[in-house]
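quick one, two chains, predict together pls
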Amino acid sequence: MKRLALIVATTSVLALAACKTSAPDDLPPTQVTTPPIDTPTPVATVAGPVAGSQEHFTRIMAGRDTIFFDTDMSNIDNDDATALRAQAEYMLQYTASTATVEGHADERGTRDYNLALGERRATAARNYLVSLGVPESRLHVVSQGEERPAVTASNEAAWARNRRAVTVMVR
Amino acid sequence: MMCRLLPFTGLTLGLLLAAPAAAQVTAPTADPAPVAVPAQEEEGLTGGSATDVIEWDDLGIAIASFATNADVPTAANSAGTGALGLELARVVFADLRNNGLFRPTGPDSLPRPSYTQITDPAWPSWQGRGADMLVHGYVRANGDGRLTVGCYLYDVALQDELVREGWVVAPSEWRRAAHKCADLVYSRLSGESPFFDSRIAYIAETGPKDNRIKRLAIMDSDGANHRFITNGQTTALTPRYSPDYSRIAYLSYQDGNPRIYVYDIGSGQQTLVVQSSNPTFAPRWSPDGRYILYSMAISGNTDIYRVPATGGTPLRLTSGPAIEVGGSFSPDGTRIVFESDQSGEQQCYIMNADGSNQRRISFFGGRCATPEWSPRGDQIAFTHIVGDFHVAVMDTAGRNLRTLTNGWQDEAPTWAPNGRIIQFFRSAQGNGDSTIWQVDLTGENERRLNTPVGASDPAWGPVLP
């Protein structure tokens, strides 16, 4: 039972609700079936944030709304690509959604250059989303330069968190 | 509006010819001030380069309270022109002292000369005070409500006048007369062009680092007459005064996107410089005020453009996939220094004003960012990124690098109108609080400017006419 509960906890909220009422008494002791992790979540049927809203998007993305860059760089690495694929899937599922991609730089740069760098990063993310089929008309790009850090400390770890492109649902 | 009264002496004329043309506007000589005396023949105390600064820095200068012919209240000072005379001398004293120039003594520790002594100093009372030079002045309330301010510089040992000048000012501009007097003293003794009678546009900062409020603000070169121009509802960045001080180009997120606007100080109205859906930033005026240089990103690629300040068709100056950004005209308007990361990191480049003949000039290690051409034309100030950020200068060939500051993050130098002092902003590690500082070309005289709140992105305008 304990084991089953743990497995259930790692799946979606909906699955948890479904299991609550009738847990089987007899379990096949050796044959543990792992529930599929990447099941498309039928979130639209769940009460909560409206599909396509920023709150809904961030809940579904669970951190994948943001991609990170190396100093002065704007290339999309594997981690970025994974996150952007999740973003693209979301936007392709919710066809009314529109988003702004915000480009950011860390504080260890000069202001004008950071504006240009933020623009380059946001555009790189936007272009990747477009390559995955998201219509360009649903994506707006804005550079925030170094003006809106996510983390305020002045160290390498903080700067790494601030060199980012964040996709934000609009409406 | 300020009117100059006295005929120039030969030396002063020479200095003014080197200054911006607007400074040569002469005024009707309503002539209250005494007759000019011939200029001194020799320029014994000039300092032609930064390394000479120390020589005249040791001069003791006594700045006495300005006298008045009749103590009457004015819009400049309700306590009377006598009290105003003391304030005038205090401003002259603060200008010279705060900039590490000379060894000034202020009016509060000096005898107050009478009105007639302004042109006939009481020499015995000034000798033995350790002052090599003596500044006298007067202020008079005119029938039309304006003020006449006279300024005299004397050599105490020679018991002789070195230079004099007078100005008619509106009461609200009384501090400008004091700055003109400080400029007169500074120019005569150093051989340098004036700079005190000038203004600074900058960004006032309040609030936490991750939600900072940034407002466009202006102030006199000594921090007086401070004024907020925007209310902080949207972020404002990187202002630049037009050369005639009538407008300020700056970046605003007013519509949610970074865009350059030109704010008209007289009307309070602002207009977009470029009608484009693309972001525009890093505005810079040409020295004649006819053009604005700006950077624009198209599909993530930033290049530098030039557009008539009144609007019109932009001219693209750079191309290619790298970031080209910022830029600063040479004083004659023929060349532009800018930064590019086409080598893989920010470095400084020079091109002709039409974009031709682009070439890199910085090869000294570290990164070269935010280059600003000196008003004298001979040097370029920039942010030298070598781990930490330092303000440095180099010649226009990218040689003779000299580091002037040593902070954790000092950036965005802007030149005093005479090219002898540089302002920049310094960010604190951690909270990111920013303050404006200035340093002279020796790197030895560094001080923080007093601003009401945090401050960044300073932009020093030219000397007022």
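The first helix of chain A runs from residue 2 to 9.
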